[in-house]
Amino acid sequence: MSAAPTIVLRDDAALRVFDTGQGGLPVIFQHGLGGDANQVAQNFPDQPSYRRLTVECRAQGGSGAGGKRPFSIAMFADDVLAAADAAGLDRFVAGGISMGAAIALRLASRHPDRVLGLVMVRPAWTFDAAPRNMRPYVEVAELINRLPLAEAREIFASSATATRFRSEAPDNLASLLGFFERENATVFAEVMQAIAADGHGVSRAAAGALAVPTLVIGCGLDLVHPLATARELAEIIPDAIFAEVTPKATDKDRHFAEIRAAIGGFLDMNFNNQDPS
User: Fold this and answer.
1) Type and span of the H or E element at 242
2) How far is the first Cα of the chain from the last one, in angstroms, to the nearest whole number?
3) 126 with 232: CB under 8 angstroms?
4) Angstrom distances, CA of residue 50 to CA of 25, 153, 165
5) Run of H or E residues at 121
6) Which of 128, 132, 240, 269 is buried deepest, with most CB atoms within 10 A?
7) Are 8 and 17 within 8 A, CB to CB?
8) CA–CA gap between residue 120 and residue 208 (Å, rounded)
């Protein structure tokens, strides 16, 4: 990752953009809901042959929220495309984690002339907006909106949702509890509610018409990013490669290492020594 991010101004939102500035293969890789460029760095195999660009989405990482509403996956995808334009990236591989995977899928479907390939890590959406697996984000946001943060966290920690997640998806639970600790918890609650109720806007038919190399990565012990979601996307997108990795809740280091290896292998197999122009 570059030593310091650059800033792209979108409306009145100052967005941080990280660009490794090296390598012949441009890859735009986006974080998940509530994530940042550090999350991307854990999952992406940065090396000299790739040039990776990551935009920290509005009200996430070090990016400002701006005044434009509602927040949406379409808004974030447009921001990413604007950052690609500013960086001079005409064609690129689009990828991301969870929400970032939804952004990447939208870019691949809406801008086929620009997207060379697609990487989706732990996707949370198939083709319907407001999937059930995103409801815990709404639950957290509603508590943040109506109660002091400490009280809201305590109530959620003892909820039926938290009880289930504690036994079936402890890593998801840790992320959800962390949202109560954010400095911008109130504005981020807006983001959570909007994104959890949203979708990427790509139909099953449109996904079935994609004609780019695609990698879909999923894992178990994850209620927010069901393994079945990753499998379904891999089945619908023509010739997509599916990879199942060790659950993050079981072994974080192995989880990240396997994701980086899968992405690196996919990129090298499909794009090594290719000119993206």
Assistant:
1) strand 241-245
2) 23
3) yes
4) 5, 40, 36
5) strand 115-121
6) 240
7) yes
8) 15
User: Tell me: the pLDDT tens digits for 87-129?
Assistant: 999 999 999 999 999 999 999 999 999 999 999 999 999 999 9
In contact, 48 and 20? CB cutoff 8 Å: no
CA angle, corner 94, sides to 63 and 250, nearest 5? 80
**Residue 174 contacts residue 182 (beta carbons within 8 Å):** no
Which two three-digit tokens encode residue 123? Answer: 């996707």
The 10s digit of each residue's pLDDT in 123-146 is 999 999 999 999 999 999 999 999
Tokens representing residue 236 in the block: 């619908």
Residue 93 belongs to what H/E stretch? strand 92-97
Q: Which tokens is 153 given?
A: 């966290």
194 with 222: CB under 8 angstroms? no
Q: Name the 3-class secondary structure at 24.
A: coil
Q: CA 91, CA 261: separation in Å to the nearest integer?
A: 23
Question: Which stretches within the chain are classed as H helix?
Answer: 37-43, 73-86, 99-110, 135-146, 149-157, 160-168, 170-178, 185-196, 204-208, 227-236, 252-271
Phi, psi of 266 (to 5 degrees): -65, -45
Name the 3-class secondary structure at 19: strand
Which residues on neighbouring strands pair with residue 16, listed in sequence order? Answer: 7
| Nearest Cα residue to 34 out of 93, 83, 76, 82 | 76
How does pLDDT run across 233-263, given as a tens digit for each residue?
999 999 999 999 999 999 999 999 999 999 9
Tokens of 63: 């990016």
